[in-house]
Amino acid sequence: MAAQVTEADQIKQFKEFLGTYNKLTENCFMDCSTCSESCLQKYLKMTQRISMRFQEYHIQQNEALAQKAGLIGPR
Q1: pTM of whole model > 0.85?
Q2: pLDDT tens for the 75 residues of the chain, in order
Q3: What distance in Å separates the CA atoms of residue 17 and residue 10, rounded to the nearest whole number?
Q4: What DSSP designation does 4 have?
Q5: 39 partner at 20 to 30 Å CA-CA among 21, 47, 63, 69?
Q6: Predicted pLDDT at 75
Q7: Backbone torsions φ then ψ of 3, nearest 5 degrees
Q8: At a CB cut-off of 8 Å and minimum separation 6, what does 63 contact?
Q9: Smallest Cα–Cα separation from 63: which of 8, 5, 55, 45?
C-alpha cells in the first residue's frame, strides 16, 4: 500500500525543491554574467586594437601617396 504523504510534507518538499532551484539559477546566472563580462572586455580590446591598426595603415597609405605626389620627402 502506498504511504500517504501529508500536505505539510508536500509543502516542505516543494520548498526544498524551490530552494535548490533558486540556488542553481543564481549560480548559473552569476557564471553567465561573469562570462559575458569577460567576453565583452575581450571584444572591446579587440575592437580598440583593430581601430589602432586601421589608423596606422591609413597613415602609411597617406604618406605613400604624398611621397608619390612629391609633397613630402622619403623617410
Answers
A1: no
A2: 456 889 999 999 999 999 999 999 999 999 998 899 999 999 999 999 999 999 999 999 999 998 888 877 666
A3: 10
A4: P
A5: 21
A6: 60
A7: -75, 140
A8: 72, 75
A9: 55
Give the separation between CA 7 and CA 10, rounded to whole angstroms: 5
Give the pLDDT of residue 69. 85
63 class by beta-carbon count within 10 Å (0-12 exposed, 13-18 middle, 19+ buried): middle
Look up residue 48 and give its three cell numbers.
Answer: 580598440
The CA distance from 62 to 66, in Å, is 6
What number of H helices and E strands is found in the chain? 1, 0
Cα angle 17, 20, 21; round to 5: 85
The single residue listed with the C-alpha cell 569577460 is: 38
| Cβ contact 38:47 at 8 Å | no
* 15's grid cell: 520548498
